[in-house]
Design a protein that fits this description.
By secondary structure, this protein is α/β, with parallel strands linked by helices. It contains 16 helices and 25 strands. Bound molecules: nicotinamide-adenine-dinucleotide (NAD).
Amino acid sequence: MGIHASFQNNFIAPNLSDARLASKRAYRMVIDGKSADALSGKLIERESPGHRGSIVGEWPAGSTADAALAIGAARRAFDDGRWPQMSGAERSTILHAVAAKILEHVEELALVECLETGKPLHQARGEIGYCADLWTYAAGQCRGLEGDTHNAIGANRLGIVLREPAGVVGIITPWNFPFIIVSERVPWALGAGCTVVVKPSEFTSGTTIRLAELALEAGLPAGVFNVVTGYGPEAGQPLAEDPRVDVLAFTGSVRVGTQLASIAAGGVKRVGLELGGKGPQIVFADADLEAAADGIAYGVYHNAGQCCISGSRLIVENSIRPALLERLLELSRRLPFGDPLAQQTRFGAMVSRPHIEKVASYVSAGVQEGAELLLGGDMVAASSGNFFAPTVFDKVRPDMRIAQEEIFGPVLATIGFDTREEAVALANGTAFGLSASVWSRDLETAIQTTRKLRAGRCWINSVIDGTPEMPIGGYKKSGTGRELGRYGFDEYSQFKGLHMTLGRGEPWFQH
Ligand code: NAD
């Protein structure tokens, strides 16, 4: 496939002789504070998705036996108290030091993230900086994690709720935002006093390994933050199965998440799931159209549409639909995309060839079911990397697959509405409930609409926004549990009720 006629002016062809592609980085797992190879000696190689033929990373293909070693190390580090028994102040100091280490290594981490995921380098830089802030926030909050007292349960009774660390946490992460997702989980788990085993995606393990190494340099005791790499069924599934793991925090697809949750249920293990989405962007006729068009483009094309919180459904009031679509198409045709290493690139490559084929199959399904393809729909310069054109559908019916299923690519499905009730019904009319945007200049319209949306993260006049202070998580099939903010620490805490009798209590048996 060549370059699509619409995109000849804005596709940035990858420079395959860029010096930054020259050397393959070799990583090892981090178990009990030491670097480790897989017991089998097997390795996984990673080709840059935006630079066909360039191998940029290599890490161990760990197995169940390697995962067992990592879980054993985390269990010992928890049970001997080296981390959970530290004061909040001491833990906070170390987490702050990890944040400082991240900031010292922004350039290195951003390049690795860019080359392994295919996202633009400048975007990766911003993400690494944001992650340092996630660690800083958790570091500050973890000094103030308190329980509760109950002073009104009777004159000679006093109740204390003790907040305790939940134990060993198994964390499984996906490939789309490797450093953000690990940084949304690990500092909260560590801050609560837990120890962790992280299994990153087999596609993008480099920055997670570097994070664990930097944490050791920052003073985190050995065995508190372990990383086992490899494929999901071998290296990840033991985190759901092994009774030495107390909490499983999974981020990824609904398919794998539900499978792991049912395994974990057998051992009555606590599970937090952050799964897929099909985010609506509701645009009312009174919205600032210029801002909305820009936000819709950002919402659907950011990270090549591979965001769980993408705004992949445009639900637009019919009276402004032609004007908004015209503005959006103009933006989409001018958007620079392609080489992840180029400074002007707004979105880069997609993670893998099978994934891009899945996205293309959704485009075919949309056309077959009668939606109107206004722009894009196919791969671009396929011989140099996994690039897919910005793609816009109009005249989508809510029952079509492209309106219901998570495509995870730069593909927008447009549906019109006439009343606010209709917009809310359309927005809530999928199995997901992760995120949603409302665009309107009228506060009453925007807030009252948002209150009716069944989604864990909502925006008014913006999209894909976040901050460490605010909770994230899903309604419906988008997941269970909440991360970030004060709420995130509860996922990794146990609450113990301590009932005290002051003096002699009521006798049970009078004699
Ligand atoms: P995936 O479910 O295929 O893989 C996620 C992780 O699970 C990977 O580390 C993988 O190796 C592992 N895994 C796969 N099979 C396993 C098994 N049998 N046992 C244990 N682990 C296993 O998902 P993906 O393709 O990497 O990521 C894309 C998905 O993640 C999308 O659905 C996206 O919406 C979702 N996601 C959600 C959030 C959120 O916060 N809600 C954030 C990012 C991505």
